[in-house]
User: What shape does this take?
Amino acid sequence: MGEVITVTGMVLSAMPVGDYDKRLVLLTKERGKITAFAKGSRRQNSPLLAPSRPFAFGTFSVYEGRTAYTLHSASISQYYETLTTDMEAVTYGFYFLEFADYYGRENIDGGQILNLLYVTLKAIQNNNIANTLVKLIYELRLMVINGEYPQVFECIHCSKKLTSGYFSPVRGGMFCEDCKGFARGGMSTSEATTYAMQYIVAAPLEKLYTFTLTKDVEKELAQRVSNYKKCYVDKEFHTLSVLEAITT
Assistant: This one.
């Protein structure tokens, strides 16, 4: 067995293996998304019992194998316990984990996604911002981190600075009034929604969840984010189906 390495990360998923083990998917700052086996973690007296569950965030000491890692020990700084007392919040949380898993890759710095996930799970526990808005912010910002960066600051065709315009998911951003003919599938987008998208794309992470929207603006933003996501994300998320079932 190889040398023990220590990574900072979060458990995205945990699956039972055999009688007493678990197969974990970790999103780590240093190694990206990795698979680690937590041997004996399903035994009640195992020191790996608590760290081997979704949402556990901290440092993980692992042995590196040829195709996977083996969890040696962990020091968990955040379990997000309050999520488990709120069915809606925890379902949103599992969706955020599943979306992060979709974009996570091994041997690629996972720091940006990990940091976004950390602050997003904090935000979903904050009653000052609607869960639905947290979801929209997370989705758009995560796509930005992955390189699907919508151009929302200026017209794609003529580079005119924008405060409103026509958002084309297929073309990857905004068009001004004069260039709307080039906005294939373009949707007229209000100044408030345009500003919200600009803020989500560019705001410092610590400021990301510090605003609210009216219901009409949030509805418009949801349509823009949903259509943009359909162009770049080729997966149906199981947790979204569960979320829709408990919130409708």
